[in-house]
């Protein structure tokens, strides 16, 4: 066991103890030190009187209040010490009380107070010792060095306390910032999950509604196709329920770091399956065209690309009354452009909910942009430009 680890518990208990009890013990220790002449008198000692002992006690007792009233305690000791030296029965060999009050003033008092106190004690020691006989030069140095060292220790204690306070404040600020960052990340993740739930439900329900509306007609004309239609409704519903269960499971999951777990998310590679599913489920002739050489996309951009296509096709199925939809992916070196067009009713169609808003938000969150409006040949068009991995920082900046 190292010396530091051995003394750490002692220092901790000392700092946590009652400060007035510590100051009382310190005052008692100083009183004992200045009373040694009376407790163990020597043959060659100067005359001892009870008045001298009272003056010596006056340099120790005020230390009980050194932290409660540092200035008053310091002035009391500063008055008693030269009085004891001038009374000369006996004079103080070591100014214990003076060193304690200088330490206290250097650690606790205001700048002008501690400087005034140090100057007063240095001048007082020099003047007082000049009125005493048989004083040697080394005694001046001894007393002055004792006072200066005590003051320096007080300065170090004050600096250490200020440094510790600053570290604690910084730790508290960092903890608050970390908690705020965690809360913000959780809110953003929950917002993303909410958008995903909207996209999943809107897409699945739209396909199911279209199939259900066509069901009675198909039942009368083509029973075999009607059976396939109802199977498609059931498959779409089961797929939506499975995705919702995974999302709700994530929301209920508790993690030690307080983060929300992330689900496996679809990407651009899943777009052919999405287009095929829409065509098979609704009868809407849907085509996917890809031009250019695919480039790497950040994971959230991959998700955004899939979701905006899904939302655009959902709006087409729900509102456009279109017979045909085209999805185009145009790959460039630093971005990908997704264009979704249909031959439906165009912008006059009542597009309700938050679908288009969600498309713009997803594009903006990835550093991209989204435009919606009438297509060049009528119908409705959605154009979304998303940056690639290499262009992401510039787009966000």
Terminal CA distance reads 54 Å
Give the fraction of residues assigned to helices: 55-70%
Count of separate DSSP helical elements: 13
Strand content is 5-15%
Beta strands, count? 5
Shape: rod-shaped
What is the residue-averaged pLDDT?
78
Q: Strands of the biggest beta sheet: in what spatial order?
A: 1-2-3-5-4
Radius of gyration: 42 Å
- Uncertain runs: 392-397
Structural class from helices and strands? alpha+beta
Major sheet description: 5 strands, mixed
The topology string of helices and strands comes to: HHHHHHHHHHEHEEHEEH
Task: Please describe what this structure looks like.
This protein has 397 residues and is of the alpha+beta class. Among the domains are: 3-135, no CATH class; 267-397, Heat Shock Protein 90 (2-Layer Sandwich), CATH 3.30.565. It has helices at 3-16, 19-34, 36-39, 50-58, 70-87, 96-108, 111-130, 137-221, 223-252, 271-282, 299-320, 355-365, 392-396; strands at 285-291, 324-331, 335-342, 369-374, 380-387. A 5-stranded mixed β-sheet has the order 1-2-3-5-4, covered by helices on one side. Helix 11 (299-320) links the parallel strand 1 and strand 2. The chain is rod-shaped, with a radius of gyration of 42 Å. The protein starts with a helix and ends with a helix.
Summarize the structure.
With 397 residues, the chain is α+β, with helices and mostly antiparallel strands.
List keywords for this structure.
single chain; 397 residues; alpha+beta; Heat Shock Protein 90; five-stranded mixed sheet; 13 helices; 5 strands; 65% helix; 9% strand; rod-shaped; disordered C terminus; ATP binding; Sig_transdc_His_kin_sub3_dim/P
